[in-house]
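Submission sheet (multi-component)
Chains listed below:
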Amino acid sequence: MNDVQTRLRPESGELLRIDDLYTHFSTALGVVRAVDHVSFSLDRGERLGIVGESGCGKTILSRSIMGLLPRRNVLRGGSVTFGGAELTTMSLKERRRIWGAEMAMIFQDPMTSLNPVIRIGKQLAEPLRVHLGMTKSDARATVLKLLQDVGIPEPEKRLDQYAHELSGGMRQRVMIAMALACGPSVLFADEPTTALDVTVQAQILELIERQRSERNMATILVTHDLGVVAGHTDKIIVMYAGKIVEMASTTSLFGAMKMPYTEALFQSIPKLEQPAHTRLVTIGGRPPNLIHPPTGCRFSPRCPYATDKCTTEEPPLVEASPGHWFACHHPVGSDRWHEVSVRRREVA
Amino acid sequence: MTDITSESNVAPAASPTEAPTASPTEAPAKKFRRRGVFTMWLAVAWLVFLVFTAIGASWLPYVNHSCDQFAEETRDEKCITHIDTNPLLSERPPVWATFSDTTRPVVGDAAERAGFFGTDTNGFDIFSRTMFGARNSLLIGALSIVFGIAIGGTLGLVSGYVGRRVDRVIDSIMNIFLAFPALLLVIFIVGFFSDSGTNEAKSRSIVPIIFALVILSIPPIARLVRANTIVYAQREFVTAARSLGARTSRIITREILPNVFPAMVTFAITGMAILIVAEGALAYLGLSVSAPTPTWGAMIFGGQSKLETAWWISIMPSIVMFLTVLSINLLGDALTERFRIREAIG
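Outcome: structure written.
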């Protein structure tokens, strides 16, 4: 492996700190609050999962952290500290030095994130030559090594192929190789397996996991699938309508989830022990309009436990146990929750 | 012909061993054929012929009409200029045009018909002049479009990718140029250049003509490239390149340009055809390259008053121009088909 890639990094400690980050888009219809005052931190080598339905701001959050959003009609604020440096006030030139070399991203759709007219080898060599100043032949050798690392058969042949000649899983592997090329210390994986079929999904997640542990790299896995997150993260953030509604270590979250939204997400995963033809549990309604979000708790219109308090007063993010935060007036296990659960069971 | 089609249909990635493995019991799979391959090759053949004669006109056995009439010592015997007009050969119809007679007196035992394309009023062979005209017409068309692509393409890429104020400025300027009547604009530019010289020796070179045609071709090219750039700039792979720290100039030249290039090239080819016609229009107004140097437009213009008695003076160069522009357009269509970028889908 390359020197720079195995460059010694402190084993632990805080790597990324997000403070009160918000990203709003001004549109013709009003201001869309895509990410609304989000704070959390990420340690070196930590595996973070961000979970939520489509359209609740997961992708925008990860792109806001990297600073990859369009400049036009965007209102943003808060701070992103990366290894002690403030990213939000950094010039584009400085940020470019960090992009790719320190932070990298895998995109949702490998079908469109590779340039259709550039050969795979050349596309992969690009970041190596930009950041590490490698010569053409050095870069080619490293690319070959990278392709082997991500488990692509016949890497020599792939170098001279175009994206359309590869399968979906193979393309996602190429994307991962590209993101890993310069040995970043944090990898954003934005729904890396959504566009792939289930058998390939497991391989890709396994690959990201292996590369993470080899490189002591932190990963931020953005997904709507609690099942994906369960086995591959240390910490989980549950987002709803642009806000964090629950944040906990993976074991704590699955052991004692507090937020009814998390519960609903969890219930909507089909489970193996259920008898055949069990009706799939869904969450009624749709994620709220982010231009005029509901008052009070944003989940209240869809929440079975909602009371008047929920629609008027926004619940603050409180700590249930060390490291386990949630924002709810009637969390799982409260009196209201018991009352409604019993009634629901009777109805069923 | 089958050779050409099969060769052109094999995708570059397909290994050559795959092709002949079909078992004899199976019905032979119907070969995929592109539409219009034959006409495309005809067009290519015509253009190749034309380009070779245009380049080699001085060495081929044509009468030279592009030489300098005043450079006495360098003139070879094939050099014929305006001082060598031959009234005895004036306005002879083409040799094959037996249905057409000359209105000029036939002296002695001279042939009534002369040359493959006939002769003009000065007694010059029209075929030779057409081939020398190809040199100028093609050169003007090609150079104009090359400069047009270089300038217009750059403007389009920059305004499409950078956007904001840069885009607004460039796009406004392009709009102004597009709003001008094209011919008026070209006349104005050419007129602006020829004012400097004295009127009697109107030795207009091809430079102002090319300049005018470049100006004419920039706005549509910039428009096309800008529109394509905007489409590709929003694509995920550009964000991916950005997320890996690529510089703006690198994204434009490495990520976007290769994607926009096919559209640019096919437009350039069609554009060249348009510019050749535009040069013809300019010559028709007497504003193209000055007299002894032949261009197709100038030749058509020269024969216009004789159309009733000596049709071949205008018609023959017109046919050549028509075939050339048609060939270029057919080639452009074929290239559009061929260049269609394979998206990484499926």
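Remark: Chain A is about 35% helix and 25% strand.
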